[in-house]
Here is the input.
Amino acid sequence: MKINGACHCGFITIEGEANIERVTVCHCTDCQRSTGTAFRFNVPVRGDSFKITGEPTIYLKKTAESGTPRAQAFCPRCGSPIYSTSPGEGRQASYMVRAGILEQRDQLMPKRQIWFRSARAWVTGLDAVPKYEKQG
Ligand SMILES: [Zn+2]
Ligand SMILES: [Zn+2]
Here is the structure.
């Protein structure tokens, strides 16, 4: 699926070809900390289709469990997470794009949840929490 999106302030825009069969929710503690929320929502985008405007800041982090370094890209102006990829110069094979920044996010349904052992206890019970269409 063709996808496009932008960070919260619009400085960074991206587009590419996403594999919607691999939409993933990640409950790992690194994702909780780096998003400031309960989980991350990702879709892989093929490297040869990936286009970006604006210059993201790259933060290189060894993930706690696997020890594999990942380059985490975010907007230097508004702080929105944009993607993660393997570290290195130039185009990478694949980019895990943060699905919340995409115009097509309504069509991206999670196909798997990983690191579920770190999931917040309430994520499976959200449907029972009172809901308000606006701020409430
Ligand atoms: Zn921004
Ligand atoms: Zn994670």
Remarks:
- The beta strands are 2-6, 13-17, 24-26, 40-46, 51-53, 57-62, 69-74, 81-85, 94-98, 112-114.
- DSSP finds one helix and ten strands in the chain.
- The first helix runs from residue 29 to 35.
- The pocket of zinc ion (ligand 1) is lined by residues 7-9, 11-12, 75, 77-78, 80 (CB under 6 Å).
